[in-house]
Amino acid sequence: MCGIVGYVGGEDAAEFLIDGLRRLEYRGYDSAGVAIFGDADIAITRSVGRIQSLADRLGTPPPGTLGLGHTRWATHGPATEENAHPHIGGDGEVVLVHNGVIENYQALKDGLIEKGYQFTSATDSEVIAHLIAEGLAQTPPTDDQPHARYVTAVQWAIGQLRGTYGLAVVFRDKPGFLIAARFGSPLVIGVGRGEYFVASDASPIAGRTDRIVYLADHQLAVLTADGFSVLHRDSGKVRVNIQPLEAESGEVSLNGYEHYMLKEIYEQPDALRNAMRGRLNDQDATAVFGGLNLTPQQLRSVERIILTGCGTSWHSALVGEYMIEELARIPVCVEYASELRYRNPPIENNTLVFGITQSGETADTLAALNETKRKGHRTLAICNVVGSSIAQASDGGVYLHAGPEIGVASTKAFTSQCCVLAMLALYFGRTRHTSFETGERIIEDLRRLPAMIEQALTCDAEVRKVAEKYQSASNVLYLGRRYNFPTALEGALKLKEISYIHAEGYPAAEMKHGPIALVDADTPSVFIMPRGTTYDKVLSNMEEVKARGGPVIAIASSEDTEIRKIADDVITIPEAPEFLQPIITVVPLQLLSYHIAVLRGCDVDKPRNLAKSVTVE
Ligand code: F6R
After folding, report:
1. Quick one: which of 39, 474, 563, 573 has the most CB atoms within 10 Å?
2. Are 413 and 313 in contact (CB under 8 A)?
3. CB atoms closer than 10 angstroms to residue 603
4. How many of the other CB atoms lie within 10 Å of CB of 454?
């Protein structure tokens, strides 16, 4: 994970570095640091905690027109000042920031220690800094090509690394000069006028320049205030493709809300309107997607769909499986991206692979898509962040247009993903079995969604009372069936990640095959049971929990008056067609975890140990 930034140009670097790190804080917030190359020396400042702690420690930043910055999510070594970046190589001749994981770092470290290099951190990244210093020691200076020695040293060093890296490095003896390199961890170069930027993604660069270069794996960029060039690690200069920067700017203030998570929960009606805007076609009773890049022939010949993603995005893939199989009758297989990459399942021709991701930067999802693409399959992204690595790497896709999601716990991205998947189910369905009338009905239902979410949000005060009652629980079960089984998983994940209460989601009927053993007076069960096909069955499961003394909370349809006779607490949501229920039932679950986390004094927007974007495998 981690976020890196770099600057070389005519202005003081510090302002860009700190502002850029704030925008990359979603990638990790254990510790942070900057290196600023002043007149005589490189000043390094590091701090444990958030970017604000670093800014406070920096005070009035030292002047300097070359610099690096880093925000860390610890992989090797705890979150301490020693382990914070930038790291120093040799006797201080190399200063480096790194994002990624070096798998053979221990062997490299042992070799460097034997050569006399001294390590001050437990990180894998410090190994790269010393390796580059060793590379410099092995490469004599030349007069005719002043940059060549530094480039050769970096090439030599990265040639020995096994793992992933996005890195930026400056050299004590080479003012005004920066090298960036990428393998497996994204890196972009912002091309300004007389100034150049390096960053883990486009967000720090948006607003500074509108021209961007996405470095590819094995590429290095050499930057000075006068220009830049891109080289392949082994084969010399490559042609640079400067692209217009498309990053969407969005509302990133709290807008009166106490936390981003709450704000984003309340933004869901608008997020869904944006996801649907221009995509519902009444004339043909179908959905339209400009970016899928599929010919009508390709569309009709799709025989199977794989949906892959991680965490919450994997949950929306499960919802998508129900939707696409039911509405479009195309077999769907849902894969954890982290497993898909290494499982090597047989994938038939005419299979479409969708990577679902809010950030577009999740390393496992990117790797799974690249792996399936390598095998000749069409890979598409359902993604929120415009211009992100996964959006770039896919053959096409659908943007969510949900706006920036800042809270680490995903909320509006989940409902937007489900909404896009419902539209895809309609789109695929209308090329085969779905009739015009059914298409019209689906469109009508989709159009009602934002209002239904608005109505679901009115349960907030009721949910807060339930949260007060159960805030001290140590375990919570979430149970639902069919479309509401993925919602049960999502409700449990939300509670775990922000309130640190252990929670499990299960298909309600599976409960009696094991989890029911957990039921006691201190273990509440949340039943997600709006009216629908399996309502009566889930009701029986609820009775089974009650019979064993377990407290029961029901998320039920507003018209369901009977449920109050059985459940201890009832939170009502508007009636909705079954295929759209998960988009609505998740709202009270998001609010429940939010209120419990607030009541327990947890850091809702930046929970411990997590990061918004998981850029390591
Ligand atoms: C949970 C959460 C994570 C992400 C997962 C995938 O609230 O946010 O589980 O869903 O890390 O992230 P994206 O969707 O960015 O690929």
Report:
1. 573
2. yes
3. 13
4. 15
Q: What is the pLDDT of residue 248?
A: 58
* E strand spans, 346-487: 351-357, 378-383, 396-399, 475-480
User: Residue 66: CB partners within 8 Å, gap ≥ 6?
Assistant: 7, 8, 13, 36, 37, 170, 175, 176, 177, 178
From ligand 1's centre to the CA of 28, what distance in Å? 13
614 lines ligand 1 (CB under 6 A): yes
Fold type of domain 3-246: Glutamine Phosphoribosylpyrophosphate, subunit 1, domain 1 (3.60.20)
Instruction: Please state the pTM of the whole predicted model.
Output: 0.88
Residue ranges per domain, the chain?
A: 3-246, 260-599
Q: Residues 432, 288: contact at Cβ < 8 Å? A: no
Is 383 labeled as catalytic in the residue annotation?
A: no
Q: Which pLDDT belongs to residue 126?
A: 97
Residue whose CB lies within 8 A of the most ligand 1 atoms, among 314, 338, 358, for a mutation test: 358
Question: Could you tell me the two tokens for 217?
Answer: 């794996």
Tell me if 309 sits within 8 A of 316, measured CB to CB: yes
* Nearest-angstrom CA–CA distance, 366 and 184: 9
C-alpha to C-alpha distance for 69 and 4, rounded to whole angstroms: 6
Tell me the C-alpha to C-alpha distance, in Å, between residue 408 and each of 32, 294, 602, 604: 18, 33, 13, 8
Select which of 494, 496, 606, 612 is catalytic.
612
Residue 357 beta carbon below 6 angstroms from any ligand 1 atom: yes
For ligand 1, the distance from its centroid to the CA atom of residue 383, given in whole angstroms, is 11
Distance (Å) from CA 222 to ligand 1 centroid? 33
Q: Where are the alpha helices (DSSP H) in 244-388?
A: 260-266, 268-276, 296-300, 311-328, 337-343, 363-374
Residue nearest to atom 10 of ligand 1 (CA): 312
- Calpha distance 617→612 (Å, rounded): 14
List all residues 6 or more positions away from 599 whose beta carbon is below 8 Å from its beta carbon. 467, 468, 471
Sorted by sequence, the CB contacts under 8 Å of residue 416 that are 6+ apart come out as 268, 271, 272, 274, 275, 384, 400, 401, 402
Residues in the chain: 617
Give the single-character DSSP code of 234.
T
pLDDT computed for residue 609 by the predictor: 86
Q: Evaluate whether 576 touches 457 at the Cβ level (below 8 Å).
A: no
Q: Quick one: pLDDT at residue 249?
A: 55
pLDDT at 116 over 60: yes
* 3-state SS, residue 392: helix
Q: What digits encode the pLDDT tens for the residues 214-238? A: 999 999 999 999 999 999 988 778 8
